[in-house]
Amino acid sequence: MSVPSYRIAPVVNLRQQVESPRPDRTAGRRLKLLSYNIQTGITTNRYHHYLTHSWKHVLPYPKRMDNLDRIASLLNEFDIVGLQEVDGGSLRSGFINQTEYLSLQARFPHWCDQTNRNLGHFAQHSTGLLSRVRPDEVTEVKLPGVIPGRGALTVRYGQGPEALILVILHLALGKRARFRQMECVAEIISNYRNVILMGDMNCCSESHEIDWLVKRTLLREPAHDCPTFPSWRPSRNLDQILVAPSINVESISALNVPFSDHLPIAMEVTLPPGLILSDERRELRDLSLPDVAA
């Protein structure tokens, strides 16, 4: 496990007025989550596009930026977004870090990315986080596999064993490698009660790998009725969000948008009462400031 690292965009001023109403801590906070494999901003509408559009995986093209802008418009309504198949800034993306670009376009104050497979100027295969809540810690974990290049971006919100742990990942194509990666993920989350796992699992919700993970962790079985791949005729739910029992799921759906070869999966959750995130701690400190005489 590498040393925790941050890459955070300029922080907006969330300071509240002293006379603002005190937040209700008896009710859990609601968060809107999204997991999306954006295929580096490439639109794919047919299987033969994997061949005829293959050059877009290595070379820039102008319409990629238009598509990223459409994706950014979609992301606007969410609090936390996990991205897979983003480029960290190479020739094909016009040397633009796509996670950073989407954070700016969708006005997310915090972002970070993990480059899992570095092909220099040709490609920077990455996983990304966009967040309206300030993370307390971001850790990059390299996942095992015969072919290196898979990772888990682990994000901690809050302090201690009651913190919220978010894991964003893109698992391997091979079943044996996925099992080894699931073992690593299970170890990462083993000491925490409030966990969210999201990403492109490259296996369906009823697979042996997901079944293994659910039986050996606190994570609940994912939804089986949200197919996300291929985006033009979804039949397989490769993209999933799993949560611990302490987190209440209000809704979950695959969004029918044609911006990638995957559909994004969205979930709205309510956190357990008493789980205070970083921005809420700042609000509490601000609310406790003494009045200043004029």
Estimated share of beta-strand residues: 25-35%
Distance between the termini: 52 Å
Q: What's the structural domain tally? A: 1
Which blocks of ≥5 consecutive residues have pLDDT under 50?
Answer: 1-23
Task: Name the CATH homologous superfamily.
Answer: Endonuclease/exonuclease/phosphatase
The main pleated sheet reads as: 6 strands, mixed
The helix content, as a percent range, equals 10-25%
CATH architecture annotation = 4-Layer Sandwich
Record the strand order, biggest sheet. Answer: 3-4-2-1-11-10
Name the assembly state. Answer: single chain
Number of DSSP-assigned strands = 11
Overview of the molecule:
It contains six helices and eleven strands. With 294 residues, the protein is α+β, with helices and mostly antiparallel strands. The protein has a single domain, classed as 4-Layer Sandwich (Deoxyribonuclease I, Chain A). It has a six-stranded mixed sheet. α2 (63-75) packs across α3 and α4 packs parallel to α5 (208-216). The longest helix is centred in the middle third of the chain and has 15 residues, at 175-189.
